[in-house]
Each structure stands twice: as C-alpha cells, then as structure tokens.
Amino acid sequence: MIVDIISTALFMIGCLLGLTGAWGLLSFPDFYTRVHAASITDTLCAACFVSGLMLQTGWSLVTVKLLMVLLLLWLTSPASSHALVRAAHHAGLRAMTWSFLGDRS
Amino acid sequence: MVLAITIGALLAIMLLALARALAGPKVYDRILAMNMFGTKTVLLIAVYGIFTDSPSLVDLSIFYALINFIGVIAVLKFIERVEEYDEVVER
To answer: How many domains does chain A have?
Structure first.
C-alpha cells in the first residue's frame, strides 16, 4: 500500500516538473534560456517517472530494464543538449545580453 | 486513475513541445523541442507498458531513447554543414 502511495506521489512530482519545463520552454525569451528549461526537466522528470515505475514493478528484470532506461536518459540528454548548444553557438547564435532588470542588474 | 493523470500530463507536455517546435524562430529551437518530445515519448511508452502489464514495452523505450539521441546528433551534423555554405544565420 505504501509503495503505491509513494509511486503515485513520484508520478505527480514528475508530471509537475515536466509541465513546468514545457511551460518554460514556451515562455522563455531566448534560445539559451529555453535549453536550460527543457534539458533540466528532461533528466529530473524522467528520474521521477522511472523511479515511480520501478516501485511498481518491484524486484524483477523489468526493474533492471527501467534502470537502463534511466541511465540512458541521464547520459544522452545532457550530451545532446551540449551538442545542440555548441552547434548553435558555433553557427553564430549569440545569447541575449539585456535582462529583465534593465540597467539595474 | 494515476495512469490517466500521468499519460494526460505527458501528452500535454508533448503538445507544448510541439507548440514550441512550430513557433520556434530558429531551427535550434525546433531541434530542442523535438529532443524534449522524444524524451517524453520514451517515458510515455514506459509508463503505458508498465501499467497495462506488458513489460516488453520497456525494451522499446530503451531503444527509443537511443534513437532519439542519434537523431538529434544527425540533425545537428546536417545543420552544421548547411550553415557553413550559405551563412543563413545572421552573425
């Protein structure tokens, strides 16, 4: 019973993180801020979901497969974000220099 | 009930990522949105597989995670070559 409660809580946290990441992806002004919003939740939201799933499946081969999924996501997501930002920077896309605080920052 | 909420939230996230892909001014926003879309598809397949007692879907999500990464790198490689030739992105 406890396991179900914990996994449900993990799912809810994962959903919230994912939604905030997607909302950040939409509402941030510049490309580099959007990369920050999207790639943070990629790893954290995936961790919440997969750990919630692992609780559901208990000690079995499926749990090991889920662990593989998590490890893969944790390794490939930062790598692809890094490659993306490096390619964008190389192609001449410069980060915005002004900030919301104007000249007071 | 939990399945409905999680799958609904995942689909909503994918929809928002698609919105960014459509609206994205530059090609890099689109690649970023597709990268996020792919990661959420991985989670969607895993969640659906576990909740409907068909654990073989988890193998699919492992495979999809790899393909998503390779796809992003391939598109970046393609974009990088095109940029050098006709200097599309303004300096």
So the answer is: 1
